[in-house]
Amino acid sequence: MYTVYKQRIDMKDVNINKTKRGLFAVLAVGFLLLGACKKEEWLSPEPSTLITDETAFATPERIANQVNGMYAKFKADRFWGSWYLIASDIRAGDFLCTNLNAATGAITYQMLTQTTTGDVTDIWQYGYLAINTCNVFIDGINAKGKEVLTEAEAQQYIAEARLLRAVAYYSLLQLYARPFWDGNGSKPGLPIRLNGNTTPGNYDLARSSVQETYEQIIADLDFAEANLPTSYSSAFLNTTRAHRNTAIALKTRVYLSMQAYEQVINEANKIVSLSAPFSATDGVQHALEADIQNVFKAPYTTNESIFSMPFTNNDAPGQSLARYYLPGTTDGGTSSSNGAGEYSLNPDGVISSANWKENDARRAFIKQGPRSGKYWLFKFTQASPYTDYAPVIRYAEVLLNLSEALARNSQTVDERSLALLNAVRRRSDPSSNFAAIDFPDMQTFLAAIAEERRIEFLGEGIRNADIMRLGLNVPAKAQHAVPAVAPDAQNYIFPISSDELILNRLMENN
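Predicted structure:
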């Protein structure tokens, strides 16, 4: 995909011909993903940085390096390393921008995005970079890799690529396309690119429908489920590499966005036991961690952490969750837990809910700044460098996905649905115990599930997708005179990136 290779261009000063020349110049230096190489390869007449597509898949070791590179592209800081999550949450009403700095998301926060807005172009660019990386890898395995891999190894690697591609397409849908409920998937979705691009070419491709894009996502995840290993040799790999239960868990999220509640139930039942304590009994033994604090601190590899993007001192994101959500040392941050204080918690948002009790362990993630009086999210706390893992999906989400699907499918306060809601809530607040009598109608029960999701996944990039799939208003931010945005408003979703519109003659911004 061409937009993923282009150098950043000031669209006010550069015309389309210069844009194309800049793109082709970047393409010309080569695409390949390669990671670290052996010492003898450094001394080779063919430097590792210039390995061609003829040799990139020549050995299992080089292929393994490219697998690492594929994950690295996915966790780029402008995509799943942080910025997709941040951009999703700052739209959704539970955070306040501290300085309305356009360079740090204020335009997205104010719901004023244009085709040239940095968040719009960057997330699109890095999302399609991740997609193209997967496509080039799949092409390489099919063309060369199968000569040096067993069939099972080749299929596993392709399955990992297709899972990452599925998550990338799903993520872009949540920002750039109308929700599934609007026209039952008939509205414009994304250009679906399934072949890798490593050289200049014709990149004209019309948008597929939302339905067609979701069908591709499900096809990728079904393939991943069938071909990924049931588990790896360590908790670290079970958290940071895709395995079979990763694909299943992600399908519960995707089907929930499609309002396909029976399918959510079918998928979740593969990894959620019928009764409490809920857990997965096959493959990785997923379960809720007893103390939620453990999920967000080293080693970040609890059985609840189905899939996360890892970072280390030598591999820290340039833009991180902790940097944006933590205050500086003058307002409650410490030498090891401080940030730029870009986004505080909205005191009128979910933290003000009377249903979120003071003895709830998740309240420990919230601290009030002694100088400003603002409320800050301390869910991600590692600074200098910022090494918190970025969560992609947790077991708690699977339980709440199933809880909601059971209730919506039966249109009752389903007994198992209620038990799943209680499992997540009581893990952090043992004093709470919802009963069917607490919910006089279905709407109050569904509202309780939705609020539990807001509490549980605060700062994890899920709230915006929930707003979209439920057809809710994007909340107002009265502190900055940002009005609510109705589902039928043009700015309910991101516009398509100006880069795509310039270089893809079949692309429309609608």
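Summary: The first helix runs from residue 16 to 28.
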